[in-house]
Please model this.
Amino acid sequence: MRTRRVLLCLVLSGLMFVPVRADKRLFSDAFAPAEFAARRAQLMAAIGDGVAIISGATEQANYEKFKQNKQFFYLCGVEVPRAMLLVDGRSKTSTLFLPARTPADDRSEGPLLAPGDEARRLTGIEAVVDRVQFDAAIKTIAAQGRHIYMPFREESIGAVATDRVRAHERATASDPWDGRKSKEAVFREKVQAIAIKSEVVDLDPLLDKMRLVKSPAEIAVIREATRIAGLGILEGMKVAEPGMYEYEIEAIADYVFKRNNAMGIGYFALVATGTNAAWPHYHAAQSRLADGDLVLFDYAPEFKYYTSDVTRMFPANGRFSPRQRELYGIYVKLYQALMSSIGPGPAADRLKAAHGKMTAILESFTFTDPKIKAAATAFVARYASGGRSFGHGVGLEVHDVAGGFDGVYTPGMIFTIEPALTIPDEQIYIRLEDVILITETGYENLSASLPMGIDEIEKVMKQNSGIRRFWDSGILGF
Model:
């Protein structure tokens, strides 16, 4: 009995060490090796006689857990700092170059994937060799004068998106007190200096196009990231009340994300009460929720390198006021009309169909507030000429790569819709966001489990939260 009590205390204090399966430590469990092999095979077909070379992320200069960059992970799933991958379109084989490991390296944080047969077996990559052999490999390719495909864009790691990466590159390059080159630019220059007969070609458009349509395995991971996002937002709704700070709502979701084994966040939390919501990317999270406020909550985790993007709005006190019911009510009707128009095929045709549905809703809706009517009318007018897309892609990045999207939706594409209805002179901003998967016959709303309607939201906000009960119990002591 005493032994059992000691074990219980160790578990509760977080001191008990539970070993993990070695294979999981050495190689990603996000997908089977065959998934990565299929991606490399697709790339080989695209580069023909050329070779593709991509470098992994470096170790961190801080005590954050290592994360691989998105493009490298997409091709092989290897989570080792300073790894390199060579994909050969001529021989239809790949070579992974890994830093050698010593027993001293492994004693600190445990073993990592190292060159050799075990790495080849785990990853399914044809050759896994010491990184020192990369120099000889480049010189062999240089003598052949073959095209070399390499990333031109700065790498994406963690809570990031391509649009922000590009903005950061531009800002750094134009800063007279900075001007640093990206790791990718330096790597390209070093390879080009050796392979002077080869043309170095941008690899990013090829990978971006591949990433546009998700495989069944990718869809399953994004579905789980979306489920976790929904749980976090739902608990935040249940806990919310006037007097709480925005950061407390964020903290609830952080716990839920971690509890469900998220790697981290997909993007910074957008918890905006009242007029803070008028800034679409507000994330200071320092304001108190006031009675009568509507609260915008937009947050999702990074799960197995993929993320989601989900938003809900709810009244801080759990009840919509009469004006909020009219404002939010017309928005939801228009939003659902827009969503119901989604499906495979040209986006422009479906957006025009949505405009027709929303116009009919405007004509039948009973408005009592002329400002709300004007805002709803302006919302619908934005869709009069159709458009190229319903929203932005979601996948390895929260604003996922467009991949040369031509305005035609095909099964396997995943994106969000997040149209905003605004009354600018009052700093009123209403927005929801759902994650949409295009199917053969229409679409699936991956975030459909979250309440959207007024009655649904008010009902949920009356429910007790297990986290809130724990919080209010005083067990934590604060």
